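Case study: Peptidoglycan glycosyltransferase RodA.
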Amino acid sequence: MSRRFRQFDWILLFSILGLIAAGMTLVYSASQVPAYPWKAGLFTRQTMWLVIGLVALFTAAAVPFRFWEEYSHLIYGVAMVVLASVLVIGVEREGARRWLSFGGFQFQPSELAKLATIMLVARLLSRPRLDITKLSALLPVLFAALVPFVLILLEPDLGTSLSLPAALVGMVFWAGFPGVVILIVATPLLSTLLSFKLWLWVPYLVLLLVFLRMIGVKRLLGGAIAVVNLAAGFAAPVLWGTLHPYQQQRVLTMLNPESDPTNSGYQVIQSKIAIGSGGLAGKGFLEGTQKGLAFLPEQHTDFIFSVLGEEFGFIGCVLVLCLFALLIQRSVRLATKARSRFGAYLVVGIASMIMFHVAVNVSMTVGLAPVTGLPLPFLSYGGTFLLVTLIQSGLLLNVAFRRNEV
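Here is what the predicted structure looks like once written out:
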């Protein structure tokens, strides 16, 4: 036991505790809005979820990860059933069914489903003598991720569903799937985005062909990749038509928020004003005017990073981002040292998902990505999201404590 404590990653624990403290501080600040006195109760509810989450964290850390590996199929199955039930009996808000309600509590099964999927994929990838480059090995992994992806997309919740591929990419790459192939598979998406600007799309296709030639891709395969990219570009108008109007508007707002400053562009504009007005050291705790005067929308959830920037400035933003970077770095280090393949894949999946959430949320607040509704781990208000984030943290600490176990 004493040896385990000596080998334990205390820096990982420090980063987790630091992010929890930062999150509770920011939620308290975001709840102090004189124009909306009801928001004062947000901190109380978040504190309650924190207590529940800490119990879950210690439970996830205390139970040997072999237990989670052995019962990953069962956990995944239950999570999918609960996730599917949302489409039938879920609480509807603004045309979306994402929550289940029990008494006075509501929670999002999609958050639990994401963690259950990571567990199952980690088990599938840790099978003996697995060659992930073979289709027979890759298909079960893809199917395990496809089921929750489709169910979450049907709610609809595009932002949450996209975090699953992010985790999957990190895990299959760690399992030995060629990074170049992953990059090539992602090219049709990039082609779709760039096709809206012909002067960007044509040079992109030329550079893609040059890149494929440089890395030695055979002509037949290179031609197939080029055709797929062309098809993706020509299909862009059709794909655009499948998006909901609010999703289309989010993309247009990202490209030019000033085109509609009082409506769809309002969130991003106010967010950038809040972050920019914080300067180097910020206005001070509870002194944010954009937040205090309720100019900043969804300041306790989607735009909690804007509160950080306004009240703690550039220095505060850098410190929090350093804590996230430290968490990711220690997770990658842990994955390299863990003797258990399941433990390593579990850590990589969790770290990949956290990194995706951070990248998208922060980019969203500064206008570099569409407003997707993806919360910021540890910091954003939200009971289910905080609970699952703390469970994930517990699993990271679990592997750190037992990294020498096979």
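For the exam, be able to explain this: The first helix runs from residue 2 to 7.
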